What we know:
Order of helices and strands: HHHHEEHHHHHHH
Radius of gyration: 19 Å
Largest sheet: 2 strands, antiparallel
Helix content: over 70%
Strand order of the largest sheet: 1-2
Oligomer: single chain
Structural class: mainly alpha
Amino acid sequence: MDYGTFFLIASMEGAVQAAVLALTALGLSLVFGVMRVVNVAHGEFYMLGAVVAYWVSSQISGSPLLGFVAALILSPLLVGVLAAVADRLILKRLNYDPEATIVATIGLLYILQQAALTLHGPVPTAVAAPFDFYVRFPGFGYSGYKLFVIVACIALMLGTWFLLAKTRIGLVMRATQYDRETAQAFGIPVDRVYAGVFALGAALAAIAAVLIVPTQQAYYLMGGDPLLLSFIVVIIGGLGSLRGTVVAAILIGMSDGIISTLFEPTLAKMIATALVALVLVFRPTGLFGTVAR
């Protein structure tokens, strides 16, 4: 295989990683943008999405497609409900104080992680892909499922943008983001909006995990890397900036995929960390961020 073909394969792997990372980081950025909450447990919601996907698909015999579709519907729904409950029982009681919620979500991280270890076990488990075919390119074939993942992530991100920019729900969320007290004075149920946003952010992470887990394995410690990369993305893109999240995810995901394939995964993480340091030094608000109110 010549270098050009190998680089093209690495670029496609990077595109898959960028798409999944953008969807995962979008949930983290959305929670911070509306609620001003740094959700340290975001990676564990990603992990729960994969674990629930394995459990749901294992309960359905027959075609892997049926199990996958059921997991794609039920997993983000269950994870979203769990996140909404966590918001009402924990974050709301802390009045969404920034420092207190960081500590609380760290605790939530360990609770979810240990719950997954107890119920799912320590052994990584595989989830069958819903379909298995290869798309032929000049000189090589590439997984049709991975191409589907890219398209699905793009469609979900566009759907999220439409929800935020073109619907009444999005208008209410943006009003709450802009001024919580004024929104509450005009009759907007801010607590319900916050619970919905926290659930939506967790559900986006869960959907990303369901999409990618057929190419990986469900594991109770799998939330660490998505959390780290999501934080890198939202810092570079700008906290709360959805446009910045997508741009930074493409940058980090593509570079991580290409460098990991051609060289070493550790080198990719080092470069991403260096980019964060440079952004924090020269543009602390991120590429598209604004000064926090």
